[in-house]
User: Fold these one by one.
Assistant:
Number 1:
Amino acid sequence: MADRVSGVVRWYNQARGMGYIDGDDGREVRVDSPAIEDGTFVVEGLRVTYVPVEDESGWHAEHLNIAKHA
């Protein structure tokens, strides 16, 4: 499995089940509801961690979790 990356949810549409994350690594990645683990509810501005994966349509997030605060 690839390294996890942190980022912030820039936009997420609950009805469509998809959105975008601005990753700390500089990439914009798409997130779809099946990638959200443990039924987490995501909203704009939320800090998350995920595994970035590239496919034919670009970068997307897998194994997304809410980032733990210290």
Number 2:
Amino acid sequence: MTNSIRLFFSKLELDNRMLGMIGALIFLWVVFNFATDGRFLTPRNLFNLSVQTASVAVMATGMVFVIVTRHIDLSVGSLLGLLGMLMGTLQAHILPQYLGFEHPLIWVITVVAGLSIGVLIGAVQGWIIGYLTVPAFIVTLGGFLVYRGAAWWVTTGQTVAPLDASFKLLGGGAEGTLGAGFSWIAGLLASILAVVLMVLSRRQKAGHGFSIKPIWAEYTLGAVAVSLIMGFVWIMNSYPLSKGAVKRIFANRDLPIPDFNVYHGIAIPVLIVVMIAVLMTVIAKKTRFGRYVFATGGNPEAAELSGINTRLLTVRVFALMGGLTAIAAVIASARLGSVGNDLGTLDELRVIAAAVIGGTALAGGVGTIYGALLGALIMQSLQSGMAMVGIDAPLQSIVVGIVLVLAVYLDIAYRRRTGA
């Protein structure tokens, strides 16, 4: 029986580390669900968990590239706070003077400005690291201190509020969702896309003479993928809006108040994470830039001798990290509806932990986008579960630290055993 199970999974050609992470995530969910008398695995908590994970997950995808190239970025949490403060000030105090409050272009200008500043700051850090050869640890540690101080300096530590109503939709909440109907459509389109990509991948492998999975294995993986996507949509569509939120939303739109339940659906931050994850996966696997990133991380000297401009590559990697941090700042500040001086505090540690727990090797050259997303979800599940159980914040930090060290040890042991 055991041999049959092993043969079954070997034919599916699944990553053992990914299976281990999924098993750890399921274990955490079951334990916390039992400890909270069934409150953890409810549509409401899973909806909140998905939104809370979004900002860290977005940054974790970029941190994969940073760590793969044998660097580190300790500044992302402080940079998120600075960008959030700048975008908050722009939309709350500057743009309304010229466009008026709640102008439809305010959120667009704010997001574009945040992205531009994030990419610029990331590129400057990358230039210092790549061309001036200052270690990334020192450069980003300096950024950690500078950006946190600059965020306080922008408004002398005062909380910025209120934010633009359209901007706040990007953070989720009662109105920042697709709604039940559009969520089903999005789930159906995602399922079709997943199946199409699997078919195209199989044809490409066969066309180049590579070994391919048995057709039953492809059908199994396709069924699992579709089930997970539609199952997630079903859970998000099982969380009803409160009656007060329904009245407010329909009244603002001059629509009659319905006498039936209205459901949240997929939150906009989750949709942003999915889009970023797909884009980053394509960049990692299908572009020259992605191949250069992993080649440089695997052997920097050989990569440089082969003609790769590793200095410029470093600038591009950190510029990408800055842009993703700006997107995370949009999500985090929009979700809170205001920007405080503590926004992004310790997020750099959560992001690095998510990437490492997800299988990104600190030695460089190895890492996956889906692993970083799973790592972010595990980290947030751990923190959310401990908070629901009533564990004090200091003890939460102790547990997270132990889990991080244990995850790195297990990763090292796994790579030694498999020779990876």
Number 3:
Amino acid sequence: MTGYEAQAERTFAAVPPAHGKGFAGTWWGLAWLKALEDAALDAAQVKTGRRLARAGAVGAVSVRPGRITAVVHDPDRTAHRADVLLSELSGDQWDRFVAMAGERAGHVAALLDREMPTHLVEDAAAAGIELLPGLGDLEPECDCGAWDHCGHTAALCYQVARLLDQDPFVLLLLRGRGERGLLEELRERGARPARESLGPAGVAAAGAFAAAVDLPPLPPLPEVPGGPGGALSLDTVAPPAPGVDPAALECLASATAAEAYRLLVEALRPGHGQQSCEGELTIAQDAVRLAAGDPARDVAERLARGSGRDRDGLSRAVAAWHHGGVAALAVFDEEWRVEGEALARARAALENAWDEGERPSLQARGNRWTVVGAPSQLRLGRDGRWWPYRKERGRWVPAGGAAQHPATALACPELTVTDEAS
């Protein structure tokens, strides 16, 4: 979640629903929520607000000195403007805060790292400056007519806790100073933070669209390089430190370069923005992905253990990976019962795939159809595609990529050669 600062206001775009996720992970974000939950007279309204925020009912959030604002939608899509007020620090308090922060460069460095350490808040409190809200400091205003915190203002507070988690400057803006202005004051007073964001204020993509800011055209896409970077070599005279495996590091570096190259090629393809994001790999799947890079023998043995397979099983899993990545690996590993509509579609596809008298005799077991009298097999993926397999030394081995029709899969070259040889 990023925002843009225009004078003394920042706007943060709405975020999608966050089912099952906490609203705050930092201690200052939790302190913000405690100020809400301790002060609200009706706990049921707090629960309602939590549900609304988790369901993505809070629109774009505007943060400015003394006030946060957003439109919050009820489950029936009725929109309400919700505001939460927090007193600004006085000019004298800000002067003392800047003087205090300037004396300890660590305070400024922590803020620039988007952190609010406890010692910063404690030092501020010692100087008579309360940064975080306390009991009763968050004052609600909502057009639904509630005089205390309602579900709409509570939902807004939960959403702001997410913002505070990632950027404590949101709290400082609410207290009366924006990031740019505050850092300029620190510089004028002689503070030397490790890095200052005093350049031209950037504009986040979501904020730009929300604010209708005119942006220059995007630069042309870069050219795709000829391939990933060269292999890393850690073959040095000095022995490795205890616990460091150079071969494993070389394998990881090469695999990372290859994956980065693949992602770049995918990202530059037309229509990439309309494709769904890939899910995160499991440890077992990632072990197969790394093994597909042909690592050294000892590394391959470690990857086999990590994938829960023996060396032969890993070799066949790698063959599946080469034919179709995660989808092919799932078909290799899973044997599932085809029922209902999926079974009807599979039977129809098998009946219509060959002309009369040409259909091979198939023996079904779950999602696997084995050709009777031949070392060939078809496996049905959960997405309805068919994958060819051949039998080698009593084991089924992936023989090719997926096909929409079973006859096409069974006609793959590796199966044809195997059948003729047999």
